């Protein structure tokens, strides 16, 4: 009989961290599209079941992303209940708990989800898996996100992206909102993941099963969607606005849209821009013999 250690964690065994956007402001704005939160969950549940059916050693962990908090709501390795029943029950508890929190506790205010928090939780879970031993499933993160980018989370999101890149964990992005996400475009591009914005919401399961169900080993043999354009613009640290050009602190690399005398992040003093003296420039143009 083949030992468990020899057949466990082959190149097609995956640890899929799924980040679900539960922001009620997002789903209330999508009522006109007839793509409700319950219909969205039906597509996601079918996708999760297909992942677990592809390989009995696959593991799925679901993290709910609210506008005030984020939390683990499902883990296939520890759940003894039915998948759909367990996930829906924990999601309902999380949504009720998230709505009871004060809106003032939100990082950016009403309308933005705590993407940075859910990414950090996913990476922490993956690091625990890495430390269990040399044999572990290949981890990847799938963001099912629709809320607009929160400018106040720019630093935290970028830190999570670079941490995932260092750990060689790809971040896949499936944007279900009305607009693209610059954060997730950069996350998928930097970490080698797949970024996709489905054109038809009712066909979400088809998009998930054909693009995001494949393991990392099989992706080398498939033609997956490639990003047409990536928005690399950053958000300034002073006003949290997206800018094309700005000022960067040479010490901590903080970004500002206007010139400041002092860096608000590390406290470094900035020098004033030197003004060119016309008389001095004229003297430099003269030759030693005065001509």
From TrEMBL:
It comes from Nicotiana tabacum. GO terms for molecular function: zinc ion binding. GO terms for biological process: nucleotide-excision repair; regulation of DNA-templated transcription. Transmembrane segments: none annotated. It is found in: Nucleus. This is General transcription and DNA repair factor IIH subunit TFB4. Component of the general transcription and DNA repair factor IIH (TFIIH) core complex, which is involved in general and transcription-coupled nucleotide excision repair (NER) of damaged DNA and, when complexed to CAK, in RNA transcription by RNA polymerase II. In NER, TFIIH acts by opening DNA around the lesion to allow the excision of the damaged oligonucleotide and its replacement by a new DNA fragment. In transcription, TFIIH has an essential role in transcription initiation. Component of the 7-subunit TFIIH core complex composed of XPB, XPD, TFB1/GTF2H1, GTF2H2/P44, TFB4/GTF2H3, TFB2/GTF2H4 and TFB5/GTF2H5, which is active in NER. The core complex associates with the 3-subunit CDK-activating kinase (CAK) module composed of CYCH1/cyclin H1, CDKD and MAT1/At4g30820 to form the 10-subunit holoenzyme (holo-TFIIH) active in transcription. Residues 271-291 are annotated as: Disordered. It comes from the Eukaryota. The keyword DNA damage applies. GO terms for cellular component: transcription factor TFIIH core complex; transcription factor TFIIH holo complex. Keywords: DNA damage, DNA repair, Metal-binding, Nucleus, Transcription, Transcription regulation, Zinc, Zinc-finger. Gene3D superfamilies: von Willebrand factor, type A domain (3.40.50.410). The keyword Plastid does not apply. Belongs to the TFB4 family.
């Amino acid at each position: 009989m083949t030992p468990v250690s020899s057949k466990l964690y082959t190149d097609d065994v995956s640890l899929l961290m799924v980040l679900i956007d539960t922001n009620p402001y997002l789903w209330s704005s999508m009522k006109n599209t007839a793509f409700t939160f319950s219909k969205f969950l039906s597509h996601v549940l079918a996708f999760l079941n297909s992942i677990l059916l592809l390989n009995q050693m696959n593991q799925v962990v679901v993290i709910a992303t609210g506008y005030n908090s984020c939390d683990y709501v499902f883990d296939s390795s520890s759940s003894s209940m039915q998948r759909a029943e367990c996930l829906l029950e924990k999601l309902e508890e999380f949504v009720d708990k998230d709505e009871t929190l004060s809106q003032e506790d939100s990082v950016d205010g009403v309308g933005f989800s705590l993407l940075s928090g859910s990414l950090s939780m996913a990476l922490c879970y993956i690091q625990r898996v890495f430390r269990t031993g040399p044999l572990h499933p290949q981890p990847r993160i799938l963001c099912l996100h629709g809320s607009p980018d929160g400018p106040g989370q720019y630093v935290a999101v970028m830190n999570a992206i670079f941490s995932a890149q260092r750990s060689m964990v790809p971040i896949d992005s499936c944007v279900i909102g009305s607009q693209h996400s610059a954060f997730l475009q950069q996350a998928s591009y930097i970490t080698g993941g797949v970024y996709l914005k489905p054109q038809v919401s009712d066909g979400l399961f088809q998009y998930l099963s054909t693009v995001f169900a494949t393991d990392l080993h099989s992706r080398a043999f498939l033609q997956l969607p490639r990003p047409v354009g990536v928005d690399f613009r950053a958000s300034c640290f002073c006003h949290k606005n997206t800018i094309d050009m700005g000022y960067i602190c040479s010490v901590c690399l903080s970004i500002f849209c206007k010139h400041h005398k002092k860096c608000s992040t590390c406290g470094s003093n900035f020098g004033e821009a030197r003004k060119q003296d016309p008389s001095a420039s004229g003297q430099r143009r003269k030759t030693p013999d005065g001509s």
